[in-house]
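Deliverable D5.2: sample structural annotation.
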Amino acid sequence: MPKICDITGKKVQFGHNVSKANNKTKRKFSVNLQSVTFKSQVLNKNLKFTISTSAMRTVLKYGGIDDYLSKTRNKKLSSKVKRIQKTIQKLSLKAS
């Protein structure tokens, strides 16, 4: 399973460890991924994601997964979440 955030698409980055003598050795910067289940009010079901902690804070700041997906542009989302976003938008338009 790749270490990629389902919502934002963040993945492992590469860089260098730099010593005091300025020697550089390669290293990885891993993403802090967590398995999370969000309750969607519009879809009336639980949505399970593997997301980064920064994405989790952002979703909670917006007030839930439904509000986050309705206010976020498609360009910033992964393909899995784009499909969920479309269904949420369709159902919210029908309810209006």
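Annotation notes: The two ends are 39 Å apart (CA to CA). Residues 38 and 47 are 5 Å apart (CA to CA).
The annotation will be released with the project's public dataset once the embargo ends.
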